[in-house]
Amino acid sequence: MNCTRKLKADFHIHTQEDPQDRIRYTARELIDYASHRGFDVLAVTNHNVVTYSRELREYAHSKGILLIPGIEISVERKHVILLNREDFNPSQTKTLEDIRQYRRDDSLIIAPHPYFPILQGLRSSLDKAIDIFDAIEYTHFYFKRINFNRKAEQKATSFNLPLLGVSDAHFLRQVGTTYSLIEAEKNTQSVIHAIKKKRIEIISSPMRFTSSNILLGLRHLAGQVFNHKYWFKK
To answer: Is 232's pLDDT higher than 60?
Structure first.
């Protein structure tokens, strides 16, 4: 019998199966790592591809993790996260308005890193399409005095939207830096419903301002810029 409790969750992580980013760890290795760190819920959100299967779901279940289908899609040169929608069709998803077709009670449309200094951040596009989104991200890469999440917090408050803590991990050591505690039963429908009802606690702390952390961030941002140019040429 399921019971409501606080579930440790991350809904934005990339793995080696990502066709756009160079990631060293596979989805299974991510699941192993997250399981050892007490995670209950994960979504693998690779670029423009759903990394999810019955075998992967069952492997996650064997490790005590609920795996929710996820994807980070590119539309109008911006990024959008879809959760629990395996029917993503790139030929029918060219604009932010097209995202509306994926709205339903048991799915989530999330605005990832909307104000980070990358070309794929939604920025002003978020206001124009705010009614499409179910939640806004609070992303791990920030420092005490440099925090691009502050405007995302303000926007979530202004539009009465949930704020989700995520890692947007591209390296395993980023997993667990920022995450959400979701008060829900451990099943997909309950988790999504709890997020929409804002039964969320974000666990996060600023990164230390060290050369290794700065280098890690620059590598991430540089990769985003390069991949954006590459994708846009296609």
So the answer is: no
Q: What domains lie within the chain, and their CATH numbers? A: 5-233 (3.20.20.140)
Residue 220: what are its φ and ψ, rounded to 5°? -65, -50
- Helical spans, DSSP H, in the chain: 27-36, 54-62, 124-128, 150-158, 188-196, 211-233
String of b and e for 135-168 (b: at least 16 CB within 10 Å)?
bbbbbbbbeeeebbbeebeebbeeeebbbbbbbb
Say which residues have a Cβ less than 8 Å from residue 93's Cβ, sequence separation at least 6: 73, 75, 99, 101
> What mean pLDDT value characterizes the chain?
90
Dist. CA 42–CA 57, nearest whole Å: 10
